[in-house]
Specification:
The protein is of the alpha/beta class and 479 residues long. The chain contains 14 helices and 23 strands. It has a seven-stranded mixed beta sheet, with helices on both faces. A hairpin with a 4-residue loop joins strand 4 and strand 5 (136-143). The longest helix is centred in the N-terminal third of the chain and has 25 residues, at 99-123. It binds nicotinamide-adenine-dinucleotide.
């Protein structure tokens, strides 16, 4: 069934936009699954103006009580709840995500975050008076203003709500720029917003590519930017935002390490491997794609990991049994295959998987691949591949050597430490320069700050701390 959208979700408009269409194709069979209108610079102006008016009007969103905003957010959650399945069904086609992941990491995550940030809005203290040297000062926390939310394709609705839920709670209005590949699922959020008590113009949706993204960031009506995407794009976003002196949060790429300490039970590593290294067909920023194992256990661990990875069900992501589905597009498939070929050319060995096409599978499917004999200087050990490909590398010696190997990366986003001794794993985790670490498995906590160090980004989102990017302070010196 085709999802044909003919309007733009700006200022609550439902008027059809007559212009060229952007077609979206399924990662499962390459067939068209829908289309939406192409956007231009005039739409950027309209979307920002709409957000500005909805923010600044005398009864605008920033003037609502926190309680009223929280009630509207809960009503948005109700409107999304009835769409969780349709959102997941679209994402399965757009991205190739296995159905369970498409559901849990997107619509279900949006519901949880709306609930959490509505609760936070209700308990938030936004004004306090403190003594000063000359009397008293009133310190106010205000919404930062109109925020551009720029979202990648890999977990389009989950990541959108990492940003949208705190932005709404803080009293900001927004322009969302989804990826061109995943605009259709974001339209479902626009439909839910139209049904909720959130006024027109508070949330505007502007699908488009990097050109639209840059116009949005540079627009004088935009006060701040929250961006998730690749490190290369993040650097460019920071440049454009920096020239305009706008605050940015950047959630970027990763090349995280799973550190297996010498006492880690093999079963522990195997049980966590899918969730910590292969989520979303390898298209998750937090995946630990480097597995660092003690040299003394290298052969045993490579054999066990190989057995486990080769047992995974590769296939149609609509089938609940499928663990690895197709990648988002043929160009991304070619990029991942190119990395596999490069790893082989550089001298690494493959124990399962490889660059060959899988018979009977979608053309964008990549075989889950395990490299071993990987040197830390190889591209497959240093660059983000963003597919179902891991490299197993051996370290000699103590935990210090494991930590050194884990930190030998330009990235610092996530990671995992495995040990039978949780205290020992914790001590190692604390010395890894990365924004989050899982002990004996990686399961992202929506209630704790999440962000990257080094080339993995700036600032953080999620948890109560995640609202800070959407706030600013005003101090009023009282007489
Ligand atoms: P991408 O950088 O190509 O695009 C991300 C978004 O930014 C898209 O909406 C795109 O249209 C837009 N964009 C690209 N260049 C821009 C520019 N110059 N100005 C404004 N907007 C621009 O990334 P992608 O391929 O969509 O997503 C995959 C990447 O995202 C991976 O590197 C992954 O690690 C990263 N990611 C990071 C996190 C995190 O939380 N750290 C989460 C998910 C994905």
């Amino acid at each position: 069934m085709l999802t044909e959208r003919r309007h733009l979700q700006i200022a609550g408009s439902t008027a059809p936009a007559t212009r060229d269409l952007v077609k979206v194709t399924s990662s499962i069979d390459g067939r068209e699954i829908g289309s939406y209108p192409k956007t231009d610079a005039g739409d950027v102006d309209n979307a920002v103006r709409s957000a500005r008016e909805a923010l600044d009007a005398p009864q605008g969103w920033s003037q609502w009580t926190a309680d009223a905003r929280a009630t509207a957010m809960e009503s948005l959650a109700t409107a999304i709840k009835s769409r969780v399945t349709s959102i997941a069904e679209l994402i399965v086609h757009e991205v190739g995500s296995p159905l369970a992941f498409a559901t849990g990491a997107n619509g279900v995550t949006a519901l949880a975050l709306l609930k959490d940030y509505a609760r936070l809005a209700r308990s938030m203290q936004t004004e306090a008076t403190r003594p000063s040297r000359s009397g008293r000062t009133l310190v106010r926390t205000e919404p930062v203003g109109v925020v551009a939310l720029i979202v990648p394709w890999n977990v389009p609705i989950g990541i959108l709500f990492f940003k949208l839920a705190p932005a709404l709670a803080a009293g900001c209005t927004v322009v969302i720029k989804p990826s061109p590949e995943t605009a259709l699922d974001t339209y479902l959020i626009g439909d839910a917003i139209a049904e909720s008590g959130i006024p027109d113009g508070v949330v505007n949706i502007l699908p488009g590519g990097r050109d639209i993204g840059e116009l949005l960031i540079a627009h004088p009506g935009v006060d701040a930017i929250s961006f998730t995407g690749s490190t290369a794009a993040g650097r460019r976003v920071a440049e454009v935002a920096g020239r305009a002196l706008k605050p940015v949060v950047l959630e970027l790429g990763g090349k995280s390490a799973a550190v297996v300490l010498d006492d880690a039970p093999t079963q522990l590593v195997l049980d966590a491997l899918y969730g910590s290294s292969f989520l979303n067909n390898g298209q998750a920023c937090t995946n630990s794609s480097r597995i660092l194992v003690p040299a003394s256990r290298r052969d045993e661990l490579v054999a066990a990991i190989t057995d486990r990875v080769s047992s995974w069900v590769v296939g149609d992501p609509r089938d609940p049994a499928t663990q690895i589905g197709p990648l988002v597009s043929s160009s991304h498939h070619d990029r991942v295959v190119h990395y596999i070929e490069r790893g082989l050319a550089d001298g690494a060995q493959i124990s399962t998987g490889g660059p060959q096409q899988m018979s009977g599978q979608s053309g964008t499917t990549v075989r889950p691949t395990v490299f071993f004999d990987v040197e830390p200087t190889m591209a497959i050990a240093r660059e983000e591949i963003f597919g179902p490909v891991i490299s197993v590398a051996a370290y000699e010696g103590s935990d210090d050597e494991a930590i050194r190997a884990a930190n030998d990366s330009e990235y610092g986003l996530a990671g995992t430490v495995f040990s039978i001794d949780v205290e020992r794993a914790l001590a190692v985790g604390k010395r890894i320069r990365s924004g989050s670490i899982g002990i004996n498995g990686y399961s992202l906590d929506l209630g704790a700050p999440f962000g990257g160090r080094k080339s993995s980004g700036l600032g953080s989102e999620l948890g109560p701390e995640g609202i800070e990017a959407f706030q600013t302070y005003q101090s009023i010196y009282l007489p």
